[in-house]
Amino acid sequence: MHTQSKIRIGRIDYTNVWPIFYHFRPTGLHAGVEMIPAVPSTLNRAMAEGRIDMGPISAFAYGVSSSQYALFPNLSVSAYGRVNSILLFVKRSLQEALQGTIALTTSSATSINLMKIIASKFYGASPRYVSLDPDLEQMMEQADAALLIGDHAIRASWSNTAYEVIDLGELWHKWTGHWMTFAVWAVRKEAIQRYPADIERIVQAFEASKHISIRNAEPLVQDAVRSIGGTTMYWRHYFSQLNYDFGRPQQEGLRLYFQYAYELGLIDHEVHLELWSENTVG
């Protein structure tokens, strides 16, 4: 017998998702909601196992378990070019690094596989990859380049004086002309069946938070300066460069990413994007 009465929403605390969460108030929704904070890799796994009903997951995690989910059509973390928080730090040159060893952060499947797609599809390279904790200097002791994401990448970019920094969002756009989507908002299909009206209210509240944050990013900017560091100018630029929509242009970029991932054997099936629409899966 099913006793769960609350919709379990995953929450990650990376700054790149702040705009969608910042003005989201679950208490005013007239829906039973439980917020579950987690790092992205934990959240991806909990969604796949059915312990969380909806929330932001990495684009790659959606691809792996796509048959279980629908995607919300107006919510993502995407970039058309520079993303400023998916950064490859390189000792000498990208070409040399692609012939050597690349240290990968343990915290993002989307970015790791984007790195592998870029190396293989665009440069015909197959570097050696090692997975290490996100500490730039320790990574560089063992590798020719290091991939960092999120707030780790941002902090390292501020203090870095030794390495060339390559933005993977910019590299993807240079080679494909497409958007790159790093995170999507997904909901498990059984949750749609069980709580259709509640999920509609939750989606509207997330979208409202996004629009308020875009109209006035200053509270987020000041919060980021206080909690992470950096300057107001840096964070204004950072939030303005990211895009939180998931319309046709973002979907086309993500389809290409999944096509390449499938061709390279990084994912074992072709991925079809299924979109949620009011009370149904479209």
TrEMBL record:
It is an enzyme of class 4 (lyase). This is Chorismate dehydratase. It holds the Pfam family VitK2_biosynth. InterPro entries: Menaquinone_biosynth, MqnA. Keywords: Lyase, Menaquinone biosynthesis. It catalyses: chorismate = 3-[(1-carboxyvinyl)-oxy]benzoate + H2O. It comes from Paenibacillus alvei. Belongs to the MqnA/MqnD family. MqnA subfamily. It comes from the Bacteria. Pathway: Quinol/quinone metabolism; menaquinone biosynthesis. Its EC number is 4.2.1.151. Catalyzes the dehydration of chorismate into 3-[(1-carboxyvinyl)oxy]benzoate, a step in the biosynthesis of menaquinone (MK, vitamin K2).
